[in-house]
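B., you asked whether I could sanity-check this one before it goes into the benchmark set. Here's the sequence:
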Amino acid sequence: MKIAGEWLNSCSGCEIAILNLGETLLTLLPELEFVHLPVLTDNKYFGQTGERDALTIPRAVVGIVSGGVRNEEHLEVLRELRAKTDVLVALGTCATAGGIPALANQTSAASMRELVYRGQPSTVPGPDPDPSRHHIPAMLETCDAVSQHVKVDLSVPGCPPHPDWIAEAIVSLLEGRAPAMPERSVCDGCPTRRLGPDSGCAGAGGTLHRLLEQPAFDPDKGLEEMRCLLEQGFMCMGPVTRRGCGGREGAPRCIAARVPCRGCYGPVNAHSLPFVDYVGALTAVGQSYADMPDKPGYLSRFNGSHTIIRKLED
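And here's what the prediction gave me:
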């Protein structure tokens, strides 16, 4: 099976996650042929000597793309990858839902340029860079998920994705079957104790707050003895985040470290409304949306939620 890989607005953590398959990857390699993977192999878009006139990616059966779409070059590369592959896999939360870079959608591209190039002292003497003169790809107005521009056949979320699910995606494609991916929320796999709203919120004064203090737990006891962090008044995104960060069998990674879920696996499914669902989750534990600190900061990581938040805030 020929595979072409690409990374857009990303940090390479997803590519490292592929290598973290370890022995599983070694077992699969005889059945795979990577024909394009910029992070690991030298394959020029315009030919090794620049002999081509257009950006070209080799044809492959499967395309794997990480990172979101932030500028015109990302969009050009993504469209070429989609055209040259039969199956396109969005790898990682930046590609599937915007991820942390989508937090930039809380403001405009123009205001970010103003902040970066004019709002702070420059470390480079001379005038501000001219994108047209320096061949810098023009920024798009928003940082988008891959699916907002092209058709995606399979999504593997995570920041980075757990190797268990990357392996499942590859094996399912080799075997010609649908992948068995997580489809429920972090809360469905969280072992912590839920006492319900009648037991009272253990947070400071019943008010939601950031992780500025230690939640209540006994380090000598397991997670099943610790009370639900949202019930303790901490901003845990577990109710609206897809489970899977701990792999097939492990506990949610943030919860295992005794800190609230940060939402790195993105929304539970493509049709969920994280912002609306989270309001319901807060109500279920006796909390109020009005007490939620930094609403855009928490929920804008779920691509599209920032537009809802702006309307409600207005």
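One thing to flag: Confidence is low (pLDDT under 50) at residues 304-312. Otherwise nothing jumped out at me.
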